[in-house]
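Structure tokens please, single chain.
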Amino acid sequence: MKIEPATRNDVPELLELQYKAFAPVARKLQFAAIPQMTATIDDAYAHFDSHTTLKMVSDDGRIVGSVSGKMDGGSLYIGRLMVSPDCQRQGIGRKLLHHLESMFPCTREWLCSYRDDDVTCGFYSSEGFRKYDDYLVCDGLWAIHMEKIQ
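Here you go.
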């Protein structure tokens, strides 16, 4: 497997990966309409155009993971870290995160997740991120902001 920059041609496959990767989260939260599940192809292209996106490609050429990020006010915003369900718990997400961090050295990184997604929040906590804010998105769905200060 290898990490490389994603291209605009990858956007449809990245969107499909997003649906697969976030479906278990949506089920766990009992909220099918989380933004990652309702994003359109136009949304995916807009996200791609405004962020740096990396992909993890398997030996057979399939995209099995991805992460995006962008500098925002001197801080690195980390978005859409996702790994195909059949490839999770193999260190792919961690490798993608570390690769993105190495591309954008900074003193602060931040992200948004779901407060009740203990697996994702646990992963980010293990990487040094700490909660600094949470807010009600709608109908019992809570988001959480996490940050890591270097």
